[in-house]
Amino acid sequence: MGDEKVKDEALQIMNVFEILPRLVVFDLDYTLWPFYCECRSKREMPTLYPQAKGILFALKDKGIDVAIASSLFKVLLGFLIVLKRKCHLQVSKMGVTSILVGNGVNLGAFRQGLTNFAQGSGSSVSSKRK
């Protein structure tokens, strides 16, 4: 599936929810790309998981801020989704919606993160669904 198709599907997923986060934070290693940064040469150009770019474009189109995190990241903000491979349990204890992605960010993980966020914020799936 190309970036534009992924972006369109991610936008459709977001349109189903009444409330969206103001910020989405992605871990880099094994979330946006399939490797640990420190294990690659500085000369190698990183490649993203297949659906990551389209999801990032969709978030931008919706006006949702995006940030990246490392394993040392400490969350001090509310109303965000953290799509992280590591430390998602510690982040969840801080009142932040967090999901563990097994094989990189994809539309399924994105939908699950938004669903968890909606449930945690007292919101539900919108009746806009057609």
Automatic annotation (TrEMBL):
Keywords: Membrane, Transmembrane, Transmembrane helix. It comes from the Eukaryota. SUPFAM superfamilies: HAD-like. It holds the Pfam family Acid_PPase. One of its GO terms (molecular function) is acid phosphatase activity. Gene3D superfamilies: HAD superfamily/HAD-like. The chain crosses the membrane at residues 66-83. PANTHER family: MAGNESIUM-DEPENDENT PHOSPHATASE 1, MAGNESIUM-DEPENDENT PHOSPHATASE 1 MDP1. This is Magnesium-dependent phosphatase. It comes from Coptis chinensis.
